[in-house]
Amino acid sequence: MRMIKWTTDIIAGNLREARKYIGKAYELRESCRPAADWCKEMAVRHLEFNQIGHSMVKKMIEDYANSGAQSELLPGMKAVYNDMHADIMRESAEVQAMIAAYK
Length: 103
Description:
Helix content: over 70%
Number of helices: 3
Low-confidence stretches: none
Shape: elongated
Largest sheet: none
Strand content: under 5%
Order of helices and strands: HHH
């Protein structure tokens, strides 16, 4: 379970970084377009890292469920993760919309 939490924390951190970089891209696009475009690409890459992270967490949860270890904790762990995942996906959609609108 510790690795699931750690990975989810990294995913949330990447999302914060993506939001920071796309915000900076908007801020810089008139004054320094090359830096702005670079910031946009960094935002895109952070979201790509998260796709890998989501796959890892999904596999870790499946493995944990199949192991039978501390099975009494599994429903709670899944409920907490699903709630965190929903928040992350909502915020990811917001950041993706900012990236898509960047011209």
